[in-house]
Recover the amino acids of this structure.
């Protein structure tokens, strides 16, 4: 939603400007990282001033480590946010993917560029063109996530952020 995008952008800018902040962890709520965009918004008039792609670029450009704490699902734009992070930790039961293709859309926030850079072209093409959900264990093998945990994902992400 526009509210979430604005909050993410504002939080990142505040963290980058605050010298007392050493790292950032991005997490979802209620056991889910993000299911991505609400497709009903695709047919509405273009939003002014805020879009997911530039926010992900802001994450990627941060001089402070940004860690995604993936619980539940990270789909579509949610996975694209995680791809912009410097590190990704996933709960063992998490699932990731770019399911937009199943309704005739391509990922629109540069996931088609970031995913191949991270896991290689063959694996990325499979994920991008099939829309299948990738379990955390497979994501770790592919290099999509840096670590999987069975405990509190946010706490594990904070520990990693402190370490790096």
């Amino acid at each position: 939603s526009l509210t979430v995008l604005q909050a993410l952008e504002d939080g990142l800018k505040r963290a980058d400007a605050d010298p007392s902040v050493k790292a950032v962890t991005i997490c979802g709520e209620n056991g889910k990282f993000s299911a991505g965009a609400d497709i009903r918004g695709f047919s509405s008039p273009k939003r002014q001033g805020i879009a997911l792609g530039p926010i992900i670029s802001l994450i990627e450009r941060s001089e402070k480590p940004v860690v995604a704490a993936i619980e539940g699902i990270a789909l579509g734009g949610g996975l694209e946010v995680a791809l912009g992070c410097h590190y990704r930790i996933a709960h063992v039961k998490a699932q990731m993917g770019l399911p937009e293709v199943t309704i005739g859309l391509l990922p629109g926030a540069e996931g088609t560029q970031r995913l191949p850079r991270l896991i290689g072209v063959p694996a990325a093409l499979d994920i991008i063109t099939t829309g299948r959900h990738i379990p955390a264990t497979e994501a770790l093998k592919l290099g999509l996530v840096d670590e999987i945990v069975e405990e509190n994902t946010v706490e594990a992400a904070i520990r990693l952020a402190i370490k790096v």
Q: What stands out?
A: The beta strands are 24-27, 66-70, 73-75, 87-91, 95-97, 134-135, 147-149.
